[in-house]
């Protein structure tokens, strides 16, 4: 199994720096996802690993082997493209055998290996068809088999599901996940869809403007986003301005602009300052009995019933709007204009410094 | 999509070498001869640098009138070709009638034949002693108007060229959505008014593109005015006669004429670029215009018009087939039928039939080879060398056949620069190369188009699977381009076998093609042999066309 190490990678296109200085280590056998908005440089980085883009700086390693100057055809990579890139003039079998033939393997071995991988993706029935007779999902399966059949050191996938319809996308991502586990191959997966990334990955690198914002498991990205960008890119969140102040007893408190105060002893060690707070919609809790807990009042502006949850847009007394999610129930009866009381699940919030770049809750 | 037009540095790998070979070939066989013509037109050993040749042309109406004549016939023929072509395409698109497929094939055949063969056949039909002429005067005492000169040239060009307009417009109709017509109808615009207010404006870009193409063809055709023009001399005729005339053809003056022809063609070419940009809009028809059933008198009119037009277009070809079986003696058709004309054609002109297969065949191989490499270099490996090649390969668009013929003759007669190297005049090679050079731009365009259809990621996929760049090119890229290229090559083949304007200058007894043989036999008055050869040529064309349809899987041709 292969460990991928990228040190100080730099990419320049016609005098514009697309990736300034990027460091990533991808563990053996992991499914590692590059996630970020369109244009952030995911494809560029993937193609640098594959060898289709020149490398303007830094070092790329597969285990101990530096691959910077290797031709793509020598890197022993499997690649799956957004547009499938199936060879249209070859049959399904010939597509899968193509890479094996380049390796001058024995005819018998080629056949067996191709069949093995076609079985793995459940396409053995379509072996002798031409690609044009296959659906998009089937073509992408063939592309996956073709990439895996050569026993590559790493598997690279660039938005492999973007051209499929929503339902198929979910089936395919399961299939990819299972096959990747079964084969145990180190995989770099590119997507702009955070839900897909969360569902499929061991590790995710969130990128913005060619810079890695955070690397972590789906869980840590969701619960401890290291900056405001990650917090709002992964899932949904409300970003609120607040002031960090210490009370007489020296306990840190967060003063929201609507007057609500959250005791937050975690940050006792910090000086008083302006901060930004990220509160996920599900971390607001509606309270009926306001005597035992501190609450604040909001007015319901809009609601969308989604089955499992109901999503509300509510306005604070300071006129800011926030999103709130609540598990739906049969007898819920809240209408626009109703006023309700909310409190906050303070364990789950994240506090950032005023520029949003550092997660203060994390800093020790 | 990534910007693939990125300019790379030139590197001396396999692609670099291919690029250099192509570049040198172009320098030798295009830049050198055309440059030579330019030089000759401005520079003589006696006078040094002078524009005397040009002032001679423009100051003497004996010469400059030919240019005026050329514009006159070309514009008139384009006008009539537009009317007939659009009318026929309209009938095809709007109405339901039987035999459309058959008519379409006939139209394609008509468009593919050499124009001068049409001219020759129309002389047999409508000339001074033509069958229709004498039939009318014998029975009705009716005197046909003279078809020699202006009217004859226009007649032949119109019938020869309206099929091109038809094929263009026919394609364009497919991109008009039925709903547009229905919307117009809903607003009370119907019939003829709808045609002029709605349909014609939508077809306008195609009409203009087709018109320019047709104009260019008419302007540069040399065989037709030569045969049917009599005293009415057009510009290509002047170029040819000035160059070839027995009493010391004036190569310098002919070169000046050639330069003028190039300038005109260049202007039209640029006009076309501007026009196609200005008027380009894209339409997409979910439901292309559906045909309507017609009844009564309207039905009769539709049938008469469509069958009548197509029949008139193929009439000259059919009549030649008929006369090829007649007994003939020189220019006179005798009573009785036999295969004598064919026997004589084979015995006297047999080698021309062989040449017509051999020479275009070699040329096609060259064309395919070069087109594949050039398009690949231009699309996937852009650098200074390949950009230069790309531009050079477009030059033949603006060099009329006669001009290229003259350029080759004067440039290779004594080898390059009189050195004896490449003194290929009179060889098969010179014909092969001239055919290939003239046809390359078209094939390159279509290969570039088919290459653009191939996503770069397909090639990258092959590379990621361990295939080297060269292996990927031959195993993946070329096979994917092939269907398009083969189809294009067959079309090129068809145009080559009916090519006259270059080969008439470059042929020798050993390298004459069927087209050249037909021309010379017509001039010599051996009408039987000419008819037999024309029929053979037509059979070649039809067979090639059927092959094209089989290969491309379409019964349509886009030009
Ligand atoms: N071949 C190229 N030439 C010039 N700029 C490029 C090229 N490829 C990508 N870029 C630029 O690099 C940036 C990152 O692109 P890309 O890696 O494709 O983004 P992503 O895959 O994350 O959507 C974009 O701004 C894009 O315009
Ligand atoms: Mg991308």
How would you explain this protein's 3D organization?
In chain A, strands 6-7-8-3-9-10 form a 6-stranded mixed sheet, sandwiched between helices. In chain A, strands 13-12-11-14-20 form a 5-stranded antiparallel sheet. A 5-stranded antiparallel sheet of chain A has the order 15-19-16-17-18, with no helix packed on it. With 364 residues, chain A is α+β, with helices and mostly antiparallel strands. The two termini of chain A are 36 Å apart. Chain A has helices spanning 42-50, 92-102, 107-120, 136-149, 166-183, 194-200, 218-223, 228-233; strands at 4-13, 16-26, 31-35, 57-62, 65-66, 77-80, 154-158, 186-191, 203-208, 211-216, 238-246, 252-256, 261-263, 273-279, 284-287, 296-305, 309-315, 321-327, 339-344, 350-353. Chain A is built from 8 helices and 20 strands. In chain A, a hairpin with a 2-residue loop joins strand 9 and strand 10 (211-216). The longest helix of chain A has 18 residues, at 166-183. Chain A is elongated and about 80 Å long. Chain A has 2 domains: 4-232, 3-Layer(aba) Sandwich (Rossmann fold), CATH 3.40.50; 233-353, OB fold (Dihydrolipoamide Acetyltransferase, E2P), CATH 2.40.50. Chain B has 2 domains: 14-39 and 337-559, MetI-like fold, CATH 1.10.3720; 60-324, MetI-like fold. In chain B, the strands form 2 sheets. A two-stranded antiparallel sheet of chain B has the order 1-2. Chain B is globular and about 75 Å long. With 559 residues, chain B is an all-alpha fold. In chain B, a hairpin with a 3-residue loop joins strand 1 (43-44) and strand 2. Chain B is 73% helix and 3% strand. Chain B is built from 22 helices and 4 strands. Chain B has helices spanning 14-42, 52-59, 61-94, 100-112, 115-126, 131-139, 150-173, 178-186, 191-220, 223-228, 235-244, 251-278, 296-324, 340-380, 384-392, 401-412, 428-453, 456-464, 469-497, 503-506, 514-524, 527-552; strands at residues 43-44, 48-49, 326-329, 332-337. Residues 1-6 of chain B have low confidence and may be disordered. Classes of the chains: A alpha+beta (364), B mainly alpha (559). At the A-B interface, strand 6, helix 2 and helix 4 of A face helix 18 and helix 19 of B. Adenosine-5'-diphosphate is lined by residues 13-14, 18, 36, 38-44 of chain A.
């Amino acid at each position: 199994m292969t460990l991928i190490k990228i040190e100080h990678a730099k990419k320049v296109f016609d005098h514009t720096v697309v990736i300034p200085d990027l460091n990533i280590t991808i563990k053996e056998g992991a499914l590692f996802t590059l996630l970020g908005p369109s244009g952030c440089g995911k494809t560029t980085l993937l193609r640098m690993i594959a060898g289709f883009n020149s490398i303007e700086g830094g070092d790329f390693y597969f285990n101990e082997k530096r691959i910077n100057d290797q031709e793509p055809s020598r890197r022993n990579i499997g690649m799956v493209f957004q547009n499938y890139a199936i060879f249209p003039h070859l049959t399904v079998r010939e597509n899968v055998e193509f890479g094996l033939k380049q390796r001058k393997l024995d005819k018998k071995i080629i056949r067996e290996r191709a069949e093995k991988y076609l079985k793995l993706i459940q396409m053995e029935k379509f072996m002798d068809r031409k690609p044009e007779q296959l659906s998009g999902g089937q073509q992408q399966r063939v592309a996956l088999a073709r990439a895996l059949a050569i026993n590559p050191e790493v598997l690279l996938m660039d938005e492999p599901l973007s051209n499929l319809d929503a339902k198929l996308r979910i089936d395919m991502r399961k299939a990819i996940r299972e096959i990747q586990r079964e084969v145990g191959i180190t995989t770099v997966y590119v997507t702009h869809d955070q839900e897909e990334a969360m569902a499929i990955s061991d590790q995710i690198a969130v990128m913005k403007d060619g810079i890695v914002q955070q690397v972590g498991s789906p869980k840590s990205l969701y619960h401890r986003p290291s900056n405001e960008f990650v917090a709002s890119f992964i899932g949904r969140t409300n970003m609120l301005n607040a002031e960090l102040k210490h009370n007489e007893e020296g306990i840190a408190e967060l003063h929201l602009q609507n007057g609500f105060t959250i005791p937050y002893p975690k940050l006792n060690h910090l000086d008083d300052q302006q901060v930004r707070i990220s509160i996920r919609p599900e971390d607001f809790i509606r309270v009926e009995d306001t005597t035992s807990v501190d609450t604040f009042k909001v007015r319901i502006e809009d609601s969308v019933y989604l089955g499992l949850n109901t999503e509300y847009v509510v306005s604070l007394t300071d006129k800011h709007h926030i999103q709130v999610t609540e598990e739906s129930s049969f007898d819920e009866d809240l209408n626009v204009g109703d006023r309700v009381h909310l409190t906050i699940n303070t364990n789950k919030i994240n506090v950032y410094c005023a520029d949003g770049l550092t997660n203060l809750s994390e800093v020790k | 999509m990534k910007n693939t037009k990125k300019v790379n540095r030139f590197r001396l790998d396999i692609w670099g070498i291919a690029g250099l070979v192509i570049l040198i070939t172009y320098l030798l066989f295009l830049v050198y001869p055309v440059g030579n013509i330019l030089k000759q037109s401005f520079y003589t050993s006696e006078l040094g640098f002078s524009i005397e040749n040009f002032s001679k042309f423009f100051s003497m109406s004996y010469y400059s009138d030919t240019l005026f004549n050329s514009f006159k016939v070309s514009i008139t023929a384009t006008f009539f070709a537009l009317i007939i072509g659009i009318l026929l395409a309209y009938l095809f698109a709007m109405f339901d009638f039987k035999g459309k497929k058959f008519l379409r094939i006939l139209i394609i055949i008509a468009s593919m034949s050499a124009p001068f063969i049409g001219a020759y056949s129309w002389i047999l039909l409508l000339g001074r002693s033509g069958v229709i002429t004498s039939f009318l005067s014998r029975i009705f005492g009716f005197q046909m108007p003279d078809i020699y000169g202006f009217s004859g040239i226009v007649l032949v060009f119109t019938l020869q060229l309206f099929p091109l307009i038809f094929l263009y417009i026919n394609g364009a109709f497919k991109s008009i959505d039925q709903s547009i017509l229905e919307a117009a109808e809903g607003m009370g615009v119907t019939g003829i008014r709808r045609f002029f207010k709605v349909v014609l404006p939508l077809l306008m870009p195609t009409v203009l593109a087709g018109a320019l193409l047709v104009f260019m063809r008419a302007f540069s055709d040399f065989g037709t005015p030569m045969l049917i023009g009599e005293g009415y001399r057009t510009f290509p005729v002047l170029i040819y006669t000035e160059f070839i005339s027995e009493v010391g053809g004036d190569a310098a003056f002919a070169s000046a004429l050639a330069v003028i022809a190039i300038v005109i063609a260049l202007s039209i070419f640029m006009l076309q670029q501007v026009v196609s940009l200005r008027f380009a809009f894209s339409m997409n028809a979910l439901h292309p215009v559906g045909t309507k059933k017609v009844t009564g008198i309207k039905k009769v009119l539709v049938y008469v018009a469509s069958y009548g037009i197509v029949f008139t277009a193929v009439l000259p070809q059919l009549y030649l087939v008929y006369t090829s079986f007649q007994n003939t003696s020189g220019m006179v058709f005798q009573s009785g039928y036999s295969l004598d004309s064919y026997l004589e054609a084979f015995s006297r002109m047999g080698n021309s039939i062989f040449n017509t297969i051999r020479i275009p065949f070699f040329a096609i191989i060259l064309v395919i080879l070069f087109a594949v490499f050039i398009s690949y270099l231009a699309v996937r490996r852009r650098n200074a060398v390949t950009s230069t090649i790309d531009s050079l390969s477009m030059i033949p668009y603006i060099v009329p056949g006669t001009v290229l013929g003259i350029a080759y003759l004067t440039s290779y007669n004594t080898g390059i620069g009189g050195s004896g190297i490449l003194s290929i005049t009179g060889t098969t090679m010179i014909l092969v190369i001239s055919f290939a050079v003239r046809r390359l731009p078209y094939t390159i365009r279509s290969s570039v188009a088919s290459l653009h259809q191939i996503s770069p990621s397909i090639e990258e996929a092959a590379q990621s699977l361990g295939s080297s760049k060269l292996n990927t090119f031959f195993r993946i890229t070329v096979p994917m381009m092939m269907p398009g290229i083969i189809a294009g090559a067959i079309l090129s083949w068809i145009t080559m076998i009916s090519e006259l304007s270059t080969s008439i200058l470059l042929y020798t007894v050993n390298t004459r093609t069927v087209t050249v043989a037909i021309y010379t036999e017509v001039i010599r008055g051996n009408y039987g042999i000419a008819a037999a050869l024309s029929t053979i040529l037509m059979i070649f064309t039809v067979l090639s066309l059927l092959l094209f349809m089989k290969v491309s899987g379409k019964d349509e041709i886009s030009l």
